[in-house]
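=== Given protein ===
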Amino acid sequence: MSALDALDDQQREAASTLRGPVVVLAGAGTGKTRVITHRIAHGVEVGAYTPSRVMAVTFTAKAAGEMRGRLRQLGVDGVAARTFHSAALSQLNYFWPTVAGSSAPGLIDNKVRLLAHAVHDRGLRWDTATLRDVASVIEWRKVSMLSIDDAVERHPGVTNVDKTQLADALRAYEALKDERRRLDFEDVLLACAGMLEAEPRVAAAVHEQYRHFTVDEYQDVSPLQNRLLELWLGNRRDLCVVGDPAQTIYSFTGADQRYLLEFTHRYTDATTVRLETNYRSTEQVLAVANSLMKTQHGALQLSAARATPTADVPTLTRYRTDEEESSGVARDIATRLAAGVPASDIAVLYRSHAQSAAVISALAQHGVSATVLGGRKFFDIPEVRQAIVALRGAAVAPSGREFIVDVRDVLHSLGFREDPPEASGAVREVWEARRALLQLAEEAPPTTTLREFSDELMARAKSQHEPTLDTVTLSTLHAAKGLEWPHVYIIGCSEGLMPISYATSMRAVDEERRLVYVGITRSERTLKLSWAEQAGARDRRASRFLTEIGTGTLRETAPSATRARRHR
């Protein structure tokens, strides 16, 4: 079976173009990860690639792990599927002793804490929020490859911190970091790039090791990341970049979509492939997404892979207050759950974390559990760690029974019961976490041993490959990127939230539009937008993005006055 089988025509064109430069413009839900992995597998299959000489770069450890998993399923092992930072750190640790005659500096574990110590010595007493804002300036400066003076001049600034203080803080941070012989996250990229530029033998070794490069989410690369990529490439041109300019939502961290948009200007002979067939969403959801982006130059126009004439038309609901909006959304979710929809199929998305509290409270009133994306990680939950230790202990002397029986016995000994508690909050969260462990066991092959299962849990914990909890997901639009749910609610579709109040330039508003687009395209089947007319004593207006979408693709609905029965 060929790696090109089961690909559509556009995907097959991208996957069969093995020599770069290649740019794949991949719209939301069009199968870009499939294209990347099948392209690499096809290259190995026909002898064009040696796995150990392929580097596939992405932006999160989770995405890199998923890529490695898919490649293994395709029979390909040995590809370096990594984040920019993990690849750079690996090279830094390998070459530093040869270049410098000593081990590489250690990494700082908390930038804000080190910054607090540095500015304290300069007589500055800043609160944690201010320290976090200054730390973000440090990160932005480095990924933008700017000097301290240039960064302070170009950055919009930090509240209650003047430019002189900001420059002083940045210098104090660098001095203390150097004194302690430490590197921060961004220094890893800078140091690796500097080593490749200054040491021809290091560059030659890297060029010999890696011959073929693929970069996912290329619209999110920063100047520093792109410079490091150029150094990895050297004078070679075997590069495939994959991205979607309509999903550029991290400009505030230094991401620059121009590298994707201008790729064919830098490589005039590049092959361009457009992926516009969406396998995720209904045509009704895609109509909303396309309407929002119709005025944006070069935006991909998505089409649904399957016709869905009877699918729900996305709705827009206007509420009087934020509290009524949260309550209305919670009632609607409770009704879905009562009808048998799994909680994990539902997400509520918003612009700001501050909007989550009211939704959590409203859901709790209906007995609905929720998980806030970006909150405490699954494998950091004490009860999960306790269960893994207990399972490893039980694996030392297996009972001889089916391993799923042993898993249940261990979890029951820790207090787990099959029926969920009626209460929400911490007790319900612990139950959901233990239930997720049991579900992983139920999904494992029947021949799995308890030792193999506990080893798999340890591997998942190390790579933060978290299971899906059967809870409603709450997430900011930023954190939702790359994810999908059958049922999506987007709340707070009003001016001041979408776009956010501090987005005053056209460039900033365009980024806010792309952020809403990302939220819309997370939905597989149903999409419900809503907004509230009042925030306390202040009146609000509907988001300009709703006007841009228009009424042709949205059905306006009135808030439901009925109370859904309590979900248990």
User: Anything to note?
Assistant: The longest helix spans residues 426-443. The longest strand covers residues 523-535. Residues 562-568 have pLDDT under 50 and may be disordered.
